[in-house]
Amino acid sequence: MCYGNPQQTLTEILKVRRLEPDRYGHTALDNFEHFCAYSGCDASIQ
Q1: Which of 9, 26, 29, 34 is deepest in the core (most CB within 10 A)?
Q2: Which helix (H) or strand (E) holds 9?
Q3: Which pTM does this prediction carry?
């Protein structure tokens, strides 16, 4: 995993997740923003 590189992290997530909402109503981008909020990753550096 590439925690220090938000662009690469998002690229890896999008390889396995679609942009449509999952069964909880969250998109891959929602989950990425949540991950960044809790890990300290700066989501604005995309």
Answers
A1: 9
A2: helix 6-16
A3: 0.61
pLDDT of residue 18: 76
Residue 38 falls in which region: left (phi positive, over 0), alpha (psi -120 to 50) or beta: alpha
38: exposed, middle or buried (C-beta count within 10 Å: 0-12, 13-18, 19+)? exposed
Tokens standing for 35? 């991950």
Using alpha carbons, list the distances in angstroms from residue 8 to 1, 41, 43. Answer: 9, 12, 11
Q: How far is CA 3 from the centre of its chain?
A: 11
Q: d(Cα 40, Cα 19) in Å, to the nearest integer?
A: 23
